[in-house]
């Protein structure tokens, strides 16, 4: 469609233009099936008419079967957004953290998705860890996975994990007496993110790891100067 109507390329989500086609083709299919079924019935083709009448509901069954197959895959993953269903190790980690200790969560690898001008894609592992921790500890995230995010906001937040020689005016809006909580996944960091993590590690005052020696861990750090805590989460959060 974009080849014939290039003007549509200016829209963020061109898939929305398939909805008129979806409704039109559905109504058209119902009309044609009804017409063909009636004609076949009147001409004495009872078996053919019955087959046409069953064709549409049968297509719904076939279409819905694939959704059930995909849905079964969700059963094997814990719901990390629910304290009740989250892994016990994660609940223990959340309970040991006070949301009043930190002013916000800084995810690493950093993500800020939604502004076409300043975009850092979100990886599955860090997205799960940061979003679930944000909900559990009631902390905001210095990033986003949204649509139509403010360009100045995205630029200011992305500068936090950019080169040190960038002017970072957003730092003047942040509290100096409260550290950030760095949520770290095992996914690859950029050079600037790795340097920020090393600096925050040098400022840590205490550390606690749960007794999970046989499971891979994801470390969450307090960061960017000042005192901070560190703890690790087990593998179920890893995407």
3D architecture notes:
Helices cover 39% and strands 8% of the residues. The model is unreliable at 204-239 (pLDDT under 50). It starts with 17 loop residues before the first helix and ends in a 6-residue tail after the last strand. The radius of gyration is 26 Å and the shape is elongated. The protein folds into 2 domains: 6-75; 78-237, no CATH class. With 239 residues, the protein is of the alpha+beta class.
Descriptive terms for the model:
disordered C terminus, 2 domains, 6 helices, 39% helix, 239 residues, alpha+beta
SS elements, strand count: 4
Distance from N terminus to C terminus (CA atoms, Å) equals: 35 Å
Helix fraction, binned, reads 25-40%
- Count of individual helical segments: 6
Indicate the structural class: alpha+beta
What is the total number of structural domains?
Answer: 2
C-alpha Rg, in Å? 26 Å
Oligomeric state of the chains? single chain
- Poorly predicted runs of 5 or more residues: 204-239
Shape: elongated
Mean pLDDT: 73
The side-by-side strand order for the widest beta sheet comes to 1-2-3-4
Question: How does the SSE layout of this entry go?
Answer:
Blueprint: H1 18-42, H2 46-72, H3 88-95, E1 105-108, H4 124-137, H5 151-158, E2 180-184, H6 191-202, E3 218-223, E4 230-233
Parallel strand pairs: 1-2
Antiparallel strand pairs: 2-3, 3-4
Helix pairs in contact: 1-2
Give a quick rundown of the structure.
By secondary structure, this protein is α+β, with helices and mostly antiparallel strands. It has helices spanning 18-42, 46-72, 88-95, 124-137, 151-158, 191-202, and strands at 105-108, 180-184, 218-223, 230-233. The longest helix is centred in the N-terminal third of the chain and has 27 residues, at 46-72.
């Amino acid at each position: 469609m974009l080849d014939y109507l290039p003007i549509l390329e200016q829209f963020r989500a061109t898939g929305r233009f398939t909805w008129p086609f979806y409704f039109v083709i559905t109504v058209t299919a119902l009309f044609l099936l009804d017409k063909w079924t009636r004609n076949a019935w009147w001409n004495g083709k009872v078996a053919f008419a019955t087959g046409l009448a069953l064709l549409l509901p049968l297509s719904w069954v076939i279409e819905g079967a694939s959704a059930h197959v995909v849905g079964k895959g969700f059963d094997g993953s814990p719901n990390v957004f629910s304290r009740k269903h989250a892994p016990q190790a994660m609940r223990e980690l959340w309970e040991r953290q006070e949301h009043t200790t930190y002013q916000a969560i800084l995810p690493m690898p950093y993500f800020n998705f939604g502004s076409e001008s300043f975009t850092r894609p979100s990886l599955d592992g860090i997205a799960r860890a940061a979003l679930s921790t944000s909900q559990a500890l009631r902390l905001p995230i210095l990033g986003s996975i949204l649509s139509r995010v403010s360009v100045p906001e995205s630029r200011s937040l992305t500068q936090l994990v950019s080169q040190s020689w960038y002017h970072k005016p957003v730092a003047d809006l942040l509290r100096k007496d409260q550290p950030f909580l760095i949520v770290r996944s095992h996914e690859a960091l950029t050079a600037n993110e790795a340097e920020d993590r090393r600096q925050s590690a040098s400022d840590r005052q205490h550390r606690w790891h749960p007794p999970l020696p046989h499971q891979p861990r994801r470390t969450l750090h307090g960061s960017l100067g000042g005192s901070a805590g560190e703890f690790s989460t087990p593998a179920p959060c890893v995407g």
